[in-house]
Each structure stands twice: as structure tokens, then as C-alpha cells.
Amino acid sequence: MRILYAGTEEIAVPTLEALAAAKLVVAVLTTPDEPGKRGKTLLPSPVKQAAVRLGLPVLQCDHLGSEARKLVSAYAPDTLMSFCYGRIFGPKFLALFSRRFNIHPSLLPKYRGCAPIQAAILSLDRQTGISIQDIAPGIDEGDLYLTQSFSLDGSETSATLCDRVSRLASSLAVDLLGGLDVFRPRAQEGEASYTRMIAKDDGRLDFSWSAARLHATVRAYSTWPKAWCLLCGQRLLVTGVDGSAFDIADGECQEEPGTIVALDKAHGLKVATGSGYLHITRLQLPTKKEMDSQSFVNGQRGIIGKRLE
């Protein structure tokens, strides 16, 4: 087996490492280097960095047209394994391979598209999983070879859930490739749902929402774009919340939504919402460092009783 591994983000690195250890990868396809935060230096993708470290050839193409196909064909791959690559494969490109697999971090057909991990958190799901599928013309519509489900406890962030998926996906991919004579593709069953690209303003908090929904929003956008609100007209990032969303008690609060009720030293800032109380553990003001709720209160005298908007 000769695999072209297509991936870009950090979540795809452990699977690349596992397949490379098995001497299955002949080349790695990833996206071109992109400008860093200050826009001056071009930075390689996490997958490119891993491929270089592993001594694997790296292919970077803006488009998967004829030139890209020539580059890929030179390595004579027979299998395509894709995980968080970020580009669409056309029919001519897919025709280069006798086997085509895509790793997707949801239980398909649920959460097709580009943000399944955030969607599982935002939906307050108690279970999610990983699917390895055939690559079809439609977005994540391919038949399923293998799935693995696991439980969620309501405290996962996008970062911790990505880490968990990345570790599980690597062993799942090895299992699939070691048992191709056993695993047979099957059609996806059930109603499909789709996710969209995350936008910068998606992190805007509305305290008329339930505490559980706010809790999920903070966790889902903990990596980017970050959850935020306004305090006395100033933008405030909410970067950490206490406990599990599944344990938050519903019920109308006596205070107006957004009111900072108290500082609970064990659980954080207690804030009234449209249903239940949210406990915020970490916050960050513009140009300031992120801090815990106790340190934040120490620097913001008279904050108790004010409203987050």
C-alpha cells in the first residue's frame, strides 16, 4: 500500500505519525504556507512540520489541477487518506487512487461539513464520534467503512475534543488499513445535518440564552474566535467556565440576565442568565493577560452587581 496523506491541521498529525511508522506513506499533501499573526513570515501547517520531521516528501498546491496531479503521480500512490485537509478533491484527482478514505470527526451523516467538533459541543450532545468514509463528490456523503463513538461529559472544549479525536483517529485508521478484507463500505443512514464555516462574530454571548447554551458557546469557541461580551461598554473575552453544562440547573433567575451576582471562590463569577446561573472561571480584557475570576474581581472594584451585555 502506498498512501498519499492529505492533511493540514494539528488534529491530523497523530494519524500521519501512525501511518508513517507503519511505512505506508509515500508523500504528504498539505496547504501552502500562510502568513502568521503579524503577516510577515510564512508559516508551515502542522502537518507539514510533522512530515518534514518524519522525513517525508511534502507537496503543497494552491489548486489540485493538472500540475498537482503530475506531482502526485510521480510518487505512484494507490491510496488517498485525507484528514482535515481543507481542499475539495475533484474527480480527476480522485481517479489517481484505487482507494480513497476521509476521516471525519462526527458520527455521519450528523454534522457534515467543516465544524463538526464545535457543532457537537454547541448542541450539548452527550455522544459524538469519528467516521472513516469513502470520498464522494458531495460533502461528506461517502459510504462508511468504520465508525467509533464515545461519550461527552459536558466540559469538553474545542481544543480538548480535538485532542481526543486526533488520538482515537490514528488507531482507527490503522485498524481500517489492516483489515480492508473485513471492512465493507455501507451507506450512511439517518437524516443528514450540516455545519458551516465559523465566523468571528459567532462568539458573541447573549445572556438571555440559557446558562447551558452559554457554557457550550464558551467551550466550543475556546480556540477561535473566543466567546465575548461587553462590560461597561468594553469588550470582555470569556475564556473559561466551571463544571459541566449537563449539571446546570434550569430555572428563572431573580436577577436580570447578565447580572454578576457574586464571586464564588470555588466556582467563579456567578452570572444570571435566561435560565440558570453560569459560573465563569477565566476572563480577559483587551490588551490584558487572561486571568482567573478571583484576580479579575481584585482588579475590577465594584464589579459585583454590574451587567455583562
Automatic annotation (TrEMBL):
<protein>
    <recommendedName>
        <fullName>Methionyl-tRNA formyltransferase</fullName>
        <ecNumber>2.1.2.9</ecNumber>
    </recommendedName>
</protein>
<comment type="similarity">
    <text>Belongs to the Fmt family.</text>
</comment>
<dbReference type="InterPro" id="IPR005794">
    <property type="entry name" value="Fmt"/>
</dbReference>
<dbReference type="GO" id="GO:0005829">
    <property type="term" value="C:cytosol"/>
</dbReference>
<dbReference type="InterPro" id="IPR044135">
    <property type="entry name" value="Met-tRNA-FMT_C"/>
</dbReference>
<dbReference type="Pfam" id="PF00551">
    <property type="entry name" value="Formyl_trans_N"/>
</dbReference>
<feature type="binding site">
    <location>
        <begin position="106"/>
        <end position="109"/>
    </location>
    <ligand>
        <name>(6S)-5,6,7,8-tetrahydrofolate</name>
    </ligand>
</feature>
<feature type="domain" description="Formyl transferase N-terminal">
    <location>
        <begin position="4"/>
        <end position="174"/>
    </location>
</feature>
<keyword id="KW-0648">Protein biosynthesis</keyword>
<dbReference type="InterPro" id="IPR011034">
    <property type="entry name" value="Formyl_transferase-like_C_sf"/>
</dbReference>
<comment type="function">
    <text>Attaches a formyl group to the free amino group of methionyl-tRNA(fMet). The formyl group appears to play a dual role in the initiator identity of N-formylmethionyl-tRNA by promoting its recognition by IF2 and preventing the misappropriation of this tRNA by the elongation apparatus.</text>
</comment>
<feature type="domain" description="Formyl transferase C-terminal">
    <location>
        <begin position="198"/>
        <end position="301"/>
    </location>
</feature>
<dbReference type="InterPro" id="IPR002376">
    <property type="entry name" value="Formyl_transf_N"/>
</dbReference>
<dbReference type="InterPro" id="IPR036477">
    <property type="entry name" value="Formyl_transf_N_sf"/>
</dbReference>
<keyword id="KW-0808">Transferase</keyword>
<dbReference type="GO" id="GO:0004479">
    <property type="term" value="F:methionyl-tRNA formyltransferase activity"/>
</dbReference>
<dbReference type="InterPro" id="IPR005793">
    <property type="entry name" value="Formyl_trans_C"/>
</dbReference>
<dbReference type="InterPro" id="IPR041711">
    <property type="entry name" value="Met-tRNA-FMT_N"/>
</dbReference>
<dbReference type="Pfam" id="PF02911">
    <property type="entry name" value="Formyl_trans_C"/>
</dbReference>
